[in-house]
Amino acid sequence: MPASDISEQMRVGFPLWARMGVLFGSMVALVIGLYGWLGFRHDLASEAAERERAATGLATTLAGGIDGDVHATFLTAEDMERKEYRDIQAWLHAAGEDNDIGWIGTSARDERGHHHYVIDSELEGSFPTGYPIFDGITYRERVLAGQVV
């Protein structure tokens, strides 16, 4: 019966070719996954750069079309009824719709350095001129006629 002892000792549980296949397959999967992840990150960065370029171009074009002296005269909510205000507001609104941008507006800083809305592109329910913009806070509530919108 010594032959059965030898055959049990020589039995391989997981052959070398199978181990090498698993190792090679894992390495190929890792390289493909890494390449895909890097490509995805590159595409995201390219898209963000393109959006930033388009937004910068749009902002430059819009800012070039707004008379700074007239813009500086919009100080209170009553100024929202002026023709110049409504013309700029309609122009900003149209630019937002044409470029699929959710919101466009202008702001100004007061003597303390805080931003306040000057022109809001929303034709209905816009922020009034002088309404404060809270710097550094991404979430905001719009309060119109005592209701949170």
The secondary structure category is mainly alpha
Number of distinct helices: 4
Spatially, the strands of the biggest sheet line up as 1-2
Radius of gyration: 32 Å
Percent helix: 40-55%
Sheet-strand content, in percent, reads 5-15%
Based on Cα principal axes, name the global outline.
Answer: rod-shaped
Query: How far apart are the first and last residues' alpha carbons, in Å?
Result: 89 Å
Beta-strand segment tally: 4
Q: Could you give the order of the helices and strands? A: HHHHEEEE
> What are the low-pLDDT stretches, counting only 5+ consecutive residues below 50?
136-149
Could you give a short description of this structure?
The chain is mostly helical and 149 residues long. 52% of the residues lie in helices and 10% in strands.
What does this structure look like?
The chain is mainly alpha-helical. Helices cover 52% and strands 10% of the residues. The protein has helices spanning 2-10, 16-64, 68-71, 83-98; strands at residues 105-109, 115-120, 143-144, 147-148. The strands form 2 sheets. Strands 1-2 form a two-stranded antiparallel sheet. It has a two-stranded antiparallel sheet with strand order 3-4. 8% of the residues are buried. Residues 136-149 have low confidence and may be disordered.
